[in-house]
Specification:
- The chain is α+β, with helices and mostly antiparallel strands.
- It has two domains: about 270 residues, Zn peptidases (Aminopeptidase), CATH 3.40.630.10; about 110 residues, Alpha-Beta Plaits (2-Layer Sandwich).
- About 30% of the residues lie in helices and about 25% in strands.
- A six-stranded mixed beta sheet has the order 1-2-6-3-7-17, with helices on both faces. A four-stranded antiparallel beta sheet has the order 11-13-9-14, with helices on one face. A three-stranded antiparallel beta sheet has the order 4-5-18.
- Helix 2 packs across helix 5.
- It binds zinc ion (ZN).
- The site of zinc ion has 5 residues, from loops.
- InterPro entries: Bact_exopeptidase_dim_dom (IPR036264), Peptidase_M20 (IPR002933), Peptidase_M20_dimer (IPR011650), Peptidase_M20A (IPR050072).
- Keywords: Hydrolase, Metal-binding.
- This is M20 family metallopeptidase.
- Pfam families: M20_dimer, Peptidase_M20.
- It comes from Streptomyces polygonati.
């Protein structure tokens, strides 16, 4: 069968599966590559960034019966979109989906064709995370047609800037919700978790460590101070710190923190004693760890190990408390939403090693959970797809959570 025939076969009949696949396909066809992931291939497909998809979504959400739709620039040309769908009660729940995608430069597949083939929707963002957006739009349209209201008032939050740049869209949404005094009961952050409710994520303190020495001709090293050689014991100290952390008792399912040296830079010529050396150090932090204390410890370790002056600075934007990073995210696994989603999907709650918008939502709602179709292992790859069967399963899960049978049937 040709792919065109397959496409026709899988999308023509107006089954729920076909409607869901078409909705996700349409979103994949609107490129929304994160500007940090820009490249010639992304640029060729249209404007890089979240502006076009935000415009599309704002229209879609209005068409699906949103009572209010807000568009808010996170950075110039990079909007978030918020849409309220009144429920049968005052309770407020949020579904947060990021609209940006990672790079398409390394893709071996057409990135934006959104074709439906072999029971899957293909293209960048199909899995991470336009799947949930497409499912949500399909459900909202269906409920509008049927005159149904969700049990709780639903705020759909489409956020820019998740894949790179420090979760700016989620940070902006947090401020917006707080400025408006929103009392949010539950937030579901859409990410591919294989239908497992994810209730914990580690955070990151990212630092640059620089040793400062003095340059000299390498024929006379004693006239200089070698900044690279001074860095060697600093790196060894971080390796030792990582070993120490591994021995610690874990407070939660997220285990212990880790330290990794991920970049090194220094030296200006093969016959010059280097006067400067910098390394990048990533320290994954777990619940209970204070980012400022973690950065202080990295500084103390580096400065004790280096015989030369050694500067340590955070590489991430400040958190609202002035600290060098946001803390880890942790929600008790026995909380109502974690348990409900696990029950609906027959899955086991868990934690995840990656970052997500949930890292910005601690304390913003009674409960925060990361949840969605497909596996994170398949995200960010040279090809990307989501199974149509998983879209159907996600629709069932969202329906069971958001639209439990009301006694009166219709509002
Ligand atoms: Zn994602």
């Amino acid at each position: 069968m040709t792919s065109a025939a397959r496409l026709a076969e899988s999308t023509t009949p107006d089954t729920e599966a076909a409607r869901l696949a078409r909705a996700v396909s349409r979103l994949v066809q609107v490129p929304s590559v994160n500007p940090f992931h820009a490249g010639p291939r992304a640029e060729q497909a249209g404007p890089v960034g979240e502006a076009v998809i935000a415009r599309t979504l704002a229209e879609d959400l209005r068409r699906c019966g949103a009572a209010e739709v807000f568009t808010e620039e996170v950075e110039p040309g990079r909007p978030n979109v918020y849409a309220f769908f009144p429920g049968r009660t005052e309770r407020l729940v949020v579904v947060d989906v990021h609209t940006d995608t990672v790079s398409v430069e390394h893709m071996t597949d057409p990135p934006f064709d959104g074709r439906v083939e072999s029971g899957r929707v293909w293209g960048r963002g199909a899995l991470d995370s336009k799947a949930t957006l497409g499912v949500l739009l399909t459900l909202l349209e269906e409920w509008q047609r049927q005159g149904l209201r969700p049990e709780a008032t639903l705020l759909v939050t489409a956020t820019a800037g998740e894949e790179a740049g420090g979760l700016l869209g989620a940070t902006r949404f947090r401020s917006w919700a707080m400025e408006r005094g929103l009392v949010i009961d539950q937030i579901l952050v859409a990410e591919p978790t294989g239908f497992r409710p994810v209730h914990g994520l580690r955070s990151l303190v990212l630092a640059e460590v620089t040793t400062h020495g003095a340059a000299a001709h390498s024929a006379q090293p004693e006239l200089g101070d070698n900044a690279i050689e001074a860095m060697a014991p600093v790196i060894a100290a971080f390796v030792q710190e990582n070993a120490r952390l591994r021995e610690m008792a874990a407070a939660t399912e997220l285990g212990c923190g880790t330290v990794s040296v991920t970049q090194v830079d220094g030296g200006s010529g093969s016959n010059i004693i280097p006067d400067r050396c910098s390394i990048t150090v990533g320290r994954r932090i777990v619940p209970g760890e204070n980012p400022a204390e973690v950065l202080d410890r990295l500084r103390t370790l580096a400065q004790s190990a280096s015989r030369l002056p050694c500067a340590v600075r955070s590489l991430l934007p400040e958190a609202p408390d002035g600290g060098p990073a946001w803390p880890a995210f942790y929600q008790a696994p026995d909380s109502a939403l974690v348990q409900r989603l696990a029950e609906i999907c027959g899955t086991v709650p868990g934690v995840a090693p990656y970052g997500a918008n949930a890292l910005r939502y601690s304390g913003l709602a009674h409960e925060v959970v990361v949840f969605g179709p497909g596996s994170i292992d398949d995200a960010h790859q040279a090809t990307e797809n989501v199974a149509v069967a998983d879209l159907v399963r996600m629709a069932d899960a969202l329906r069971a959570w958001l639209l439990p049978a009301a006694p009166e049937g219709k509002p």
